[in-house]
């Protein structure tokens, strides 16, 4: 308010000092009003545009909205709830020979113990033992296609993995029969 009155006083002082003609004063006042109206229109247009941009930036656009804004999306960009884990698949390819040996050893020890226990309890006549002669899951590791972590279940998180395995497993069972 103080600024308004000081600007008004400055204008009245300039009118007194410069003493323009009434027609000149009227012409420059009209030009000033037109210029002020134009500046205010531009100001409010920019303010409206900035508000719209801020509203857009604050909203989760989704795949269609991004495509509309950017024109086309890069091929590496995946905008889904499920995440691609290409880096994890790369690591799996490198450690698969070691992992395969460890998993095969674990499966072999656990299942052979179960085979032995079941043979003792069932007492199948003529069957002495069942064991793995050869066990490998092949050269191709399994691939993790996508991962989804969800907290919709109360009291915990749910981790969903989409796995794909196209390996050539080589599993040979050795069944030992008792003579006679």
UniProtKB/TrEMBL annotation:
It is found in: Membrane. One of its GO terms (biological process) is lipid transport. The keyword Transmembrane applies. GO terms for cellular component: endoplasmic reticulum; membrane. Residues 81-180 form the SMP-LTD domain. Residues 1-20 form the signal peptide. InterPro entries: SMP_LBD, Synaptotagmin_plant. The keyword Transport applies. Keywords: Lipid transport, Lipid-binding, Membrane, Signal, Transmembrane, Transmembrane helix, Transport. GO terms for molecular function: lipid binding. The chain crosses the membrane at residues 25-45. This is SMP-LTD domain-containing protein.
């Amino acid at each position: 308010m103080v600024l308004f009155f000081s600007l008004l006083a400055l204008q009245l002082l300039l009118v007194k000092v410069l003493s323009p003609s009434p027609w000149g004063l009227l012409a420059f006042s009209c030009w000033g009003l037109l210029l002020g109206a134009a500046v205010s229109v531009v100001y409010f247009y920019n303010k409206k545009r900035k508000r719209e941009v801020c509203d857009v930036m604050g909203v989760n656009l989704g795949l269609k909205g991004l495509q509309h804004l950017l024109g086309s999306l890069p091929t590496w960009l995946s905008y889904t709830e499920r995440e691609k884990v290409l880096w994890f698949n790369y690591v799996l390819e490198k450690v698969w020979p070691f992992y395969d040996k460890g998993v095969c050893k674990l499966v072999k020890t656990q299942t052979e113990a179960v085979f032995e226990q079941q043979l003792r309890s069932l007492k199948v006549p003529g069957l002495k033992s069942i064991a793995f002669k050869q066990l490998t899951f092949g050269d191709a590791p399994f691939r993790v296609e996508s991962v989804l972590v969800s907290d919709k279940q109360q009291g915990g998180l749910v981790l969903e993995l989409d796995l794909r395995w196209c390996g050539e497993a080589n599993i040979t069972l050795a069944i030992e029969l008792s003579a006679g």
